Automatic annotation (TrEMBL):
<dbReference type="GO" id="GO:0005739">
    <property type="term" value="C:mitochondrion"/>
</dbReference>
<dbReference type="Pfam" id="PF00390">
    <property type="entry name" value="malic"/>
</dbReference>
<dbReference type="InterPro" id="IPR037062">
    <property type="entry name" value="Malic_N_dom_sf"/>
</dbReference>
<dbReference type="GO" id="GO:0051287">
    <property type="term" value="F:NAD binding"/>
</dbReference>
<keyword id="KW-0479">Metal-binding</keyword>
<feature type="binding site">
    <location>
        <position position="85"/>
    </location>
    <ligand>
        <name>a divalent metal cation</name>
    </ligand>
</feature>
<feature type="domain" description="Malic enzyme NAD-binding">
    <location>
        <begin position="86"/>
        <end position="302"/>
    </location>
</feature>
<protein>
    <recommendedName>
        <fullName>Malic enzyme</fullName>
    </recommendedName>
</protein>
<dbReference type="Pfam" id="PF03949">
    <property type="entry name" value="Malic_M"/>
</dbReference>
<dbReference type="InterPro" id="IPR001891">
    <property type="entry name" value="Malic_OxRdtase"/>
</dbReference>
<dbReference type="InterPro" id="IPR015884">
    <property type="entry name" value="Malic_enzyme_CS"/>
</dbReference>
<dbReference type="GO" id="GO:0046872">
    <property type="term" value="F:metal ion binding"/>
</dbReference>
<keyword id="KW-0560">Oxidoreductase</keyword>
<feature type="binding site">
    <location>
        <position position="62"/>
    </location>
    <ligand>
        <name>a divalent metal cation</name>
    </ligand>
</feature>
<dbReference type="InterPro" id="IPR036291">
    <property type="entry name" value="NAD(P)-bd_dom_sf"/>
</dbReference>
<dbReference type="GO" id="GO:0004471">
    <property type="term" value="F:malate dehydrogenase (decarboxylating) (NAD+) activity"/>
</dbReference>
<dbReference type="InterPro" id="IPR046346">
    <property type="entry name" value="Aminoacid_DH-like_N_sf"/>
</dbReference>
Length: 305
């Protein structure tokens, strides 16, 4: 509910000289403070949030990668708190991959997952996948083989070249680079697996790595697709296909409803498994990646358990 939500923007300045000299820049016109000052400010902010709103659930997002991870660990035991980029994205992506595994005719341990992007969301997804696979009984080395094989050659900068080398069955986009999943990349993915998993998760729409229509076109309709932004349905081969939307809103309402004293890693893991198993028979028959958004209250209520 909007009346139960308080959006807060924390602006401590910028070290971007172009922004500081731009007359239209809306941010605070000062350079970032030292790490010690930054930490002291955040300590005070979190303390006061807990005093003023004792039942608050704090949702962090859009921090730099270093700050995102350090503040998650620093404050997660002070009050109910989670980082949406790290934990929310990781849980939703894990749920999506578990959900679509039934559609791909290869054993789970033969999947290879390629993440395109190096921000906190991408690292969070990698950590969530590692956590799941190790809990499922794999050792860390075996789990890492889902993401990559050892490579000692020259750095690869072309995504199509990387896809050709790694031969991933799932491609996850967390780069905010528009159109990064080129037709060549999609076609190469289609050679690796009969049902390529294509998740361009960057949002809003104009930052998406590939549209739903283009993913279907260049995979001859075989792609299993979920995006961060909403796309409309498409007809291909006389069949209506609906895209998935891997939005973090599927995950965090449960923590609000159950009034958790802290948001633990096991809770995030459980919410991912709950989301993956939430599809109805008709949603599975339509090859949906996630349940229909109209049922979000239902799954949120289930996840509070």
């Amino acid at each position: 509910r909007p009346s139960s939500t308080l959006p807060i923007t924390l602006d401590l300045g910028t070290n971007n000289s172009s922004n500081l000299s731009d007359p239209l820049y809306l941010g605070l016109r000062q350079r970032l403070p030292s790490d010690a000052e930054y930490d002291a400010f955040m300590d005070e902010f979190i303390t006061e949030m807990g005093c003023v709103y004792p039942k608050v659930l704090v949702q962090f997002e859009d921090s730099s990668t270093d700050h995102a991870f350090s503040y998650l660990e620093r404050f997660r035991n002070s009050l109910p708190l989670f980082n949406d980029d790290i934990q929310g994205t990781g849980a939703v992506v894990l749920a999506g991959l578990l959900s679509v595994a039934r559609l791909v005719p290869i054993p789970r341990n033969e999947h290879r997952i390629l993440l395109f992007g190096a921000g906190s969301a991408s690292v969070g997804v990698a950590k969530q996948l590692m956590s799941f696979f190790t809990i499922a009984g794999m050792n860390e080395e075996a789990a890492r083989n889902f993401a990559r094989k050892h490579y000692t050659g020259l750095p690869m900068k072309d995504l199509a070249e990387i896809v050709k080398y790694v031969k991933p069955t799932a491609l996850l986009g967390l780069s905010t680079i528009t159109g990064a999943f080129t037709p060549e990349v999609i076609r190469q993915m289609s050679q690796n697996t009969p049902r390529p998993i294509i998740f361009p998760l960057s949002d809003p729409v104009h930052l998406s790595e590939r549209t739903f229509a283009e993913a279907l076109k260049h995979s001859n309709g075989t792609a299993i697709f979920a995006s961060g932004s909403p796309f409309g349905s498409e007809f291909i081969g006389g069949v209506r296909r609906e895209p998935g939307q891997g939005n973090n809103m599927y995950i965090f309402p449960g923590a609000i409803l159950c009034r958790a004293k802290s948001v633990t890693d096991s809770m995030v893991q459980a919410s991912a498994l709950g989301l993956a198993g939430s599809l109805s028979w008709d949603e599975r028959a339509l090859e949906l990646v996630y349940l229909r958004i109209e049922r979000i209250r239902e799954i949120s209520d289930d996840n509070k358990q």
